[in-house]
Structures are given as C-alpha cells and as structure tokens.
Specification:
With 430 residues, the protein is α/β, with parallel strands linked by helices. It has helices spanning 6-18, 73-83, 94-105, 119-134, 174-177, 188-198, 221-233, 253-258, 284-287, 306-319, 324-342, 378-391, 412-429, and strands spanning 40-44, 47-50, 55-58, 112-116, 138-142, 155-156, 166-167, 180-183, 202-207, 237-241, 264-267, 278-282, 351-355, 358-362, 394-395, 404-405. The radius of gyration is 21 Å and the shape is globular. The chain binds pyridoxal-5'-phosphate.
Length: 430
C-alpha cells in the first residue's frame, strides 16, 4: 500500500495509550478495514485533509450530520457570531426558539419538541416517555436497527424461536433485556403474533423507518403502513428513530417521505449541523408528559446550548429552501446510476441501494431487507474496496455495514469522478 499514513499511525499509537482502543467511538478504530485510522486535521466542502497531507472526497460526512458538507460558510458564520456571545448560559436562549420554530412550522408530524445532546439521549428519553405515557414496560425493536447505545436496546435476536433477545454488550442486566422483544424486519406475521400475545405489556415499537445502520435495509411502504395500523389497533405507541433519516430524506424526514404519522419521533445528526444535538418530538398531548409539564423526567446541562443551536439553525435554514431535497435526491440517483453503468457486466454480486441522499454499496446479488441476508464474507470485498478507494482519494465509512452520504457540497463533477473511481475499484475486486 502506497498511502502515507506515518503521522496517523504515530498519533494512533499515542492515542491507544490514553483511550480504550485509541478512540472515543468503536468504529473509528478501522477494525473492519486496513491500516490505522486516519487522523483528520481539517476539512472543506466535500474534502477531508489528514495529518499526512492526503486529501479525500468524503462520503461519510461525520456519519451523516454534515448534509451541507464541511465548513458551509453560512453555518460557520452563524456559529462564529454566536460563539462571540458566550458558549452556554444554562438558561433559555432565543436561538433555540428560532430552531424550534423552523422545525415545527415545516413538519406537520410533530407539535412539540425537546432538544437534547445526542441521538442516544433522544432515543433513551423517547423510550422513557413512551413508558411513562402508557404505563407499560416492554419495547419491541427490530434486528438490524440501531438506536444508539441505550441499555435496553443493545439487544439482538436470541437463537431459535426465543422471543427475547440477548444483549450485544456486557454490562446490561438480564432484567433490562427481558423488557425488549426483538423481531426481524420485513415480517408482518411475527409482528402481529407478538402484538397479540404481549400488547398489554408493550409500551412502544421502535424502528428506524429507513434502517441505515446495518447496511441500508429499505422496507416496503406497505409494511410501514401496516405497522402503524397495528400499533393503533393494539394501543401501542410507534416510535420512529429518525436520527439518520430526519432532515435527510426530506425536511419532514421519513414521516414525510412515506406520509405516515408516528407517535414519537427522535432526531439527531443533521439537526445539529455537526454539533452535538438530538431531539424527540410528538404531538402536544404526548409531549405534555415531559417535565416540567409532566412527570417524565429528562434534563441536560448543555441541552440546546446556543452554539449547537446555531449550527443546527443555519444548516436547516438551507435545507428548508425550495428544491433542496429534490436536487439532493436527483444528484444521488445520477451518481448511483453512473456507478451501475460503469461496473462491468461480469460483476454480478453488486447491489447499490439508495434513498434520498443515502447510498449503500453491498457485495450481494439481491436487494437486502433484513440483516441476516448480509453475507459476512462479502465484507472482505468491502475491505479491499475501502483500501483501494483511500489510495485513490475517496473516503467511505470504515465498515461495509455503514452507508454513504452525499452532501450539498458534492458537485456533479466530483460525483462523476468518484463514480468512475468506485466502479473501477468494484471491477478490480470482483
Ligand atoms: C446515530 C444514531 C443514533 C445514535 O446517535 P448518537 O448521536 O450517536 O448517540 C441513534 N439512532 C440512529 C438511527 C442513529 O443512526
């Protein structure tokens, strides 16, 4: 491999002495791909610059938040203006009102919102709200959906027909796991059966309506619609985890994309424009249960701090402009089409899924809708592709289970060039 990563390697060695695995979030350690992780020094528009002087076209965008790419001038300007007034006051501030207004006036699926500081915190709070509101304890989640590192959601399906799962992390009490039911995606029958048996104990069903943390496991509209109906019939709340899809597949997220009304929606990533923000939202009635209006407690020292609100506000102002999402989607469709066109006809095991400005390259010959359809061996090919693309100056997420994101800063020219390089890599590896 020719890529010079000397400084990254040195810094990683130093980091490993201080931080578990050298990182502050596991996937950053590059365990599923070759080489030490890149230490990024700066970024601009669609480019990342590492400490060794290499330059990459970025398709990870900080895992999704940077829908405008890096250092959008309007975002930076508002953040700098806000920084100059002080970092945090621990009091209400006018800029959070601005962000609240922008979001609520342009999203008919929610009436009230609470800002927190991460997607995990948003989901954790939404689960508590669902339990507090319903007086029930159990949560249904789906295999292949990620909801942050919330205790009761770090659960995968158990073996055989066992309804209750096993934890995916040490340190989670068995008693928490017992409150979580794990079901496969794209399977209405199992969902119906589960609701029939446990509806009086189930507080909520939580799903990523656009499952994008385990590949891109796009679900059928009818499945999502049917799930909504089943929730209503059985008096079970429906939580849509839109931490990725929110403000990504449209300003109204997946709720708007599919025109389905969830009971509670969680947001993260784009809502903070690159700063730590999460949120949960619902109608006024459900949200009235949140403290201090109601008895579901939830608080945060740095919640809705002005700097994070400024980054979110400036970002979403741009996203709310006419045709923003239409243009993003069209650009992404062209990009994916170009890769497909340029991949050799001899390559049969490639499937590229896309929705909005998300894409996922899978070494598979069929469309994948459930996590158990992903062949772990196909990840070896992704590893090769990842290394090839780094050499050629393209940065994809360091795992084949991660999706790619197009940003507003990716020009048609950059995308055309990238499609060529990616197709070249696929042809070489297959
Ligand atoms: C990223 C993500 C989370 C967790 O958000 P953090 O900000 O990393 O805590 C939760 N749910 C979904 C769907 C996500 O993509």
């Amino acid at each position: 491999m020719n890529l010079n990563r000397h400084k990254s390697k040195e810094l990683f060695e130093e980091a490993k002495k201080m931080f578990p695995g050298g990182v502050h979030s596991p996937v950053r350690a590059f365990k599923s791909v070759y080489g030490p992780p890149l230490f990024i020094d700066s970024a601009n528009a669609s480019y990342l610059f590492d400490v060794d002087g290499n330059k990459y076209i970025d398709f990870c965008n900080s895992w999704g938040p940077l829908i405008l790419g890096h250092k959008n001038p309007e975002v930076i300007e508002l953040v700098q203006k806000t920084v100059a007034k002080g970092l945090s006051f621990g009091t209400p501030n006018p800029i959070s009102n601005e962000l609240g207004k922008l979001i609520l006036q342009n999203n008919k699926y929610i009436e009230k919102i609470r800002f927190v500081s991460s997607g995990t915190e948003a989901v954790m709070s939404a689960i508590r709200l669902a339990r507090g509101y319903s007086g029930k304890n159990k949560i249904v989640k789906f295999e292949g959906c990620y909801h942050g590192h919330v205790d009761s959601l770090m659960v995968k399906a158990g073996s055989g027909l066992a309804t209750f799962g096993t934890s995916t992390s040490a340190g989670i009490p068995e008693s928490f796991i017992k409150e979580t039911i794990v079901l496969p995606l794209a399977d209405l029958k199992q969902l119906e059966n589960t609701l029939q048996t446990y509806k009086n104990e189930i507080a909520a069903i939580i799903i990523e309506p656009v499952p994008a943390n385990n590949g891109l496991l796009l679900q059928d509209h009818n499945y999502l619609k049917k799930m909504r109906e089943l929730c209503t019939q059985n008096n079970v709340l429906l939580i849509w985890d839109e931490v990725i899809s929110g403000f990504r597949v449209g300003f109204e997220g997946a709720a708007g994309f599919y025109d389905i009304q969830p009971d509670i929606i969680t947001y993260g990533k784009i809502i903070g424009g690159g700063m730590p923000v999460g949120a949960y939202a619902a109608n006024s009635h459900i949200m009235s249960h949140v403290a201090p209006e109601g008895n579901v407690y939830q608080a945060g020292t740095l919640s809705a701090n002005p700097i994070s609100m400024a980054a979110g506000l400036a970002t979403l102002q741009i996203c709310s402009r006419k045709n923003f999402y239409r243009d993003m989607e069209n650009k992404t469709k062209r990009f994916v089409r170009r890769i497909r066109e340029l991949v050799s006809k001899n390559v049969t095991d490639i499937s590229i899924q896309t929705i909005g400005s998300i894409f996922w390259i899978a070494f598979s010959d069929t469309r994948i809708m459930r996590s158990d359809q992903i062949d772990p061996k196909s990840m070896e090919k992704y590893k090769e592709l990842h290394a090839f693309l780094l050499e050629k100056g393209i940065y994809l997420g360091p795992s084949g289970y991660e999706v790619g994101f197009i940003s507003d800063a990716h020009t048609d020219e950059i995308l055309e060039q990238s499609a060529h390089t990616i197709a070249l890599g696929i042809n070489k590896i297959s």
